[in-house]
Amino acid sequence: MELSSLLLPSILLFSFLCSALILFFKQDPPQKPTKSTILKGYPIIGNLPLFIKNYQRIVYWVAELTSTSPTGTVTVDPFVFTANPSNVEHLTRTNFHNYPKGDSISATFHDFLGRGILNVNGEDWLIQRKAASFDFNTKSLRAFVHDKVRRQTSDTLIPLLRRASRSGEVLDLQDVLERFAFGNICKLVLDRDPKCLSRGSEEGEQFYHAFLETSVLSVQRTLTPFSLMWKLGKWLNFGRERRLRKSREIVLQFVEKCVKSRREQSGGGGGSDFLSRLVADRSHSDAFIRDIMISFVIAGGDTTPSALTWFFWVLSSNTQVAEKIREEIKLVRSRHGDYESEVLTLDGLREMRYLHAAVSESMRLHPPAPLLSRECQEEDELPDGTRVGKGWTVMYSPYAMGRAEGIWGKDCGEFRPERWMEDGVFQPASPFRYSVFHAGPRMCLGKDMAYIQIKAVAASILEAFDVEVVEERGKLQLSTTMRMAGGLPVRVRERK
């Protein structure tokens, strides 16, 4: 096939997009979502101009749209955006099998995630889900997770912050937390410490940067108006696709090396990490294990630092909450006679109910995964009466739901941990209202592990340091999770 025959569709597409943009900015949309849950598009080009205008700010856009709808649902054919708990329950549980991950999304992430649990449906998903469910529900795993967090916090994180306090250095707390979480999840999943927080390994540093770049570039594929555009770039090996290929190769080589090394060890497994458990089952191919490991690293390495970054940003303007958490730490330590370790025990963390509420409240407003998509297999009707056509994409938004007055009341925009407490006891919300950890059969298996890590790190930092945000922040940047645009520059000071 000649190059010119491939470039022609792209040239025509570019001309089409330019025409659509000119048309869009010259006139108002035919219908606005102030009274209706359906946005009707232009003749021929449909709603394409709306997506072109808003794809870079899609999280904000979806929240704006759903807030204007009486049912919390807006149709922008062929997409349905919803922040309605009844619809979320329908998508994730009641009619779960009609709403799998879409083929287009799976194809977009296939180069990175392959057949890993985050990117598959059907039998592949079920096999991995069952295997992971058994491991994630064991007490030994929770103890193993806590031990890894405790060691890295005491040995690396606290000393790093202490040095920054004494030197007066301004740190990007988001970068620090991302490096911490990435190292911790690699140790947990692969039993390999890339030492990216201490920057003590050239290979580990390369792997960390490659993993981060592969994640970001894979997400940028989904924001491309037409898949033909990124597929053409991949075929020609230029631009972002060239960078993606290089970073992906580094990631795959690193993980494959870990798998091969574990295979060669006597007995194949024997360790407490996930790789040892999978390798012990000889029925799994190396490629299959590699894909699972990459999914686990993403799931554990991206969500935790996202939650912690927004948590410390929120606390910077809610100092009274930080003081209540410190008082709770004192109470828990006195109850257990635990005055020496820098990280609370597992039992102590369980008793940190107000901290649990504060973390949950922060994730209500700033969920690590702000927008989740499913593809409708057969025509359907949602509980609020919205029609969904076959092949349409339905997106539910934890970000929009966390800010919905109909769900959380008139103070939904306020950071108020007390809304989760009743007589001093934490009261969880329905996963269909609070979909931060998803819901239904695909509900996050690592929820308990995430809370252990988040609470352990948050308590350790708050007890030892005052954290001051030194530059204005608050805008989101969409990667595999909701990052903070520009990082979070802070100055830390040791507490007496």
TrEMBL record:
One example GO MF annotation: monooxygenase activity
Pfam families reported for this sequence: p450
UniProt entry keywords in alphabetical sequence: Heme, Iron, Metal-binding, Monooxygenase, Oxidoreductase, Signal
Record's keyword annotation contains Calcium: no
Signal peptide: 1-20
Domain of life per record: Eukaryota
Cofactor list: heme
Positions with a binding annotation for heme: 444
Family of this protein: Belongs to the cytochrome P450 family.
PANTHER family to which the protein is assigned, alphabetical: CYTOCHROME P450 (PTHR24296)
Protein name: Cytochrome P450 94A1
